[in-house]
């Protein structure tokens, strides 16, 4: 589950409570047999750090994966060509 999608009003926002409930139920069901862990991906958005902290603190996450989808004001989603330039470290200056 991506925390950024939740903040942006994506359809994932309505699925978030069900995701949390399902993972916690699976943790109980499989306790002692497999390790089921609750996690979330959190894109780095400096303007949203406090909000991220509040959301993350409100749930029993086992881990939070940090991510960066914007570099130097360029979104890696903007186009494949831009992503390839970043991946190849071209034209970054």
UniProtKB/TrEMBL annotation:
One of its GO terms (biological process) is L-histidine biosynthetic process. InterPro entries: Histidinol_P_phosphatase_HisJ, Pol/histidinol_Pase-like. Pathway: Amino-acid biosynthesis; L-histidine biosynthesis; L-histidine from 5-phospho-alpha-D-ribose 1-diphosphate: step 8/9. Its EC number is 3.1.3.15. GO terms for cellular component: cytoplasm. GO terms for molecular function: histidinol-phosphatase activity. SUPFAM superfamilies: PHP domain-like. It comes from the Bacteria. It catalyses: L-histidinol phosphate + H2O = L-histidinol + phosphate. Keywords: Amino-acid biosynthesis, Histidine biosynthesis, Hydrolase. Belongs to the PHP hydrolase family. HisK subfamily. This is Histidinol-phosphatase.
């Amino acid at each position: 589950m991506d925390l950024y999608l939740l903040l942006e009003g994506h359809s994932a926002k309505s699925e978030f409570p069900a995701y949390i409930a399902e993972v916690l139920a699976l943790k109980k069901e499989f306790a002692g047999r497999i390790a089921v862990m609750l996690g979330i991906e959190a894109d780095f958005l400096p303007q949203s750090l406090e909000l991220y902290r509040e959301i993350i603190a409100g749930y029993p996450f086992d881990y939070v994966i940090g991510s960066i989808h914007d570099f130097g004001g360029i979104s890696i989603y903007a186009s494949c060509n831009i992503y390839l330039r970043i991946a190849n470290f071209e034209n970054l200056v």
